[in-house]
From TrEMBL:
Lineage, top ranks: Bacteria, Bacillati, Bacillota, Clostridia, Peptostreptococcales
Taxonomic superkingdom: Bacteria
Organism listed in the record: Geosporobacter subterraneus DSM 17957
The protein's name: Protein N-acetyltransferase, RimJ/RimL family
One Pfam short name: Acetyltransf_3
Keyword line: Transferase
């Protein structure tokens, strides 16, 4: 069951439903899906994935990504690590449902989590890491407002070649809120009326 925490035009973010573990197990074991992730060399059983989903669901900052029209699960997004003292967080996104690739859902989900991070958690900077061969992900992150800030050269070897690990970030002042900002503005207008 899903609940609308952050709502976009195409998708919304919901608390994670641990009963989705079998869908995730299928996705993470599909090489086409996992090739851009750190776990592509791992075999993940249903029991392992269920444990991962239970752990993720117990943190406040990991969400399921759900199609707004069909209520269909696409993947997840969240902050695996947050430095609350300095206001810095790492973000990660996973679109396992290949029917939704290349259609803007990843960009919108990323914008929703950025809105949550900057305007609800009051973060200053959000960063991510991506392998250089993952061109669709890099384009998604750029569309969401991320900029490349550095590289760990030749950090990943796959298919006989070496690839850089790219670090990208976005600062709060570089982000324009669509969801949280409009909610606050509507409340202010209601109070002024």
């Amino acid at each position: 069951m899903y609940f609308k925490k952050m709502v976009g035009r195409k998708c919304y973010l919901s608390p994670i439903d641990t009963e989705d573990y079998l869908k995730y197990t299928a996705w993470v074991n599909d090489m086409e899906v996992s090739i851009g992730m750190l776990f592509s060399s791992s075999q993940i059983t249903a029991d392992t994935e269920k444990s991962i989903m239970e752990r993720l669901s117990k943190t406040n900052y990991n969400f399921a990504i759900v199609d707004l029209e069909k209520n269909e699960l696409l993947g997840n997004v969240g902050f695996p690590s947050i430095d609350t003292v300095n206001g810095i967080a790492e973000v990660g996104i996973f679109i396992g449902n290949k029917d939704y690739w290349g259609k803007g859902y990843g960009t919108e989900a990323m914008q929703l989590i950025l809105d949550f991070g900057f305007n609800i958690l009051n973060l200053h900077s959000i960063y991510l890491k991506v392998f250089a061969y993952n061109k669709p992900a890099i384009e998604c992150y750029k569309k969401a407002g991320f900029k490349e800030v550095g590289r760990l050269r030749e950090a990943k070897q796959i298919a006989g070649r070496r690839y850089d690990e790219i670090y990208m970030d976005i600062l709060a002042r570089e982000f324009t809120s669509v969801y949280v900002g409009s909610l606050v503005n509507n409340r202010v207008k209601e109070k002024e009326s």
